[in-house]
Here is the input.
Amino acid sequence: MKPQFGLIQRPWGVFYLKNKLTGEQTTLKTRDRAEAQRLLQAYNDAESQPHLNHALGMEWLLKSVIPRLLWPRPVFQQKRAITAAERCAIAAREPNPERRDFYELLWHTGASQTDAACLTAEDIDWDQHTLADPADGPCRWRALPLVEKHG
Here is the structure.
């Protein structure tokens, strides 16, 4: 992506940003070339980050808070399901019976919260004791056997 802003130094030494698309010039209020280069980089980086572009345009931020290359790399933990003991502890401390039943539905079906929330009476086959399962995207269900509640 081509940078949208360029750097201009006026005869009296102050640096300006020049928008290459509109030709608009904005003062950087500095005579220091290194500081002007940092601000230019921040404006060009912000152009590729629209949420920061507005803040920079409103002059709420004069430059990026943390340069993009200095952000720490995310460290992901190993994912796991909850255990039966954890499930019992969650259900025991939930005072809302409707929410507790929702948690039980999630546990017994393995459905995501969204899929379970989209479940309708038409998705249950009471004669075959099956519940639909989201095979073809959100809220599209296929047969899943219902199990009896054990304690």
About this structure: Strands lie at 5-9, 15-19, 25-27, 124-125, 130-134, 141-145. DSSP finds five helices and six strands in the chain.
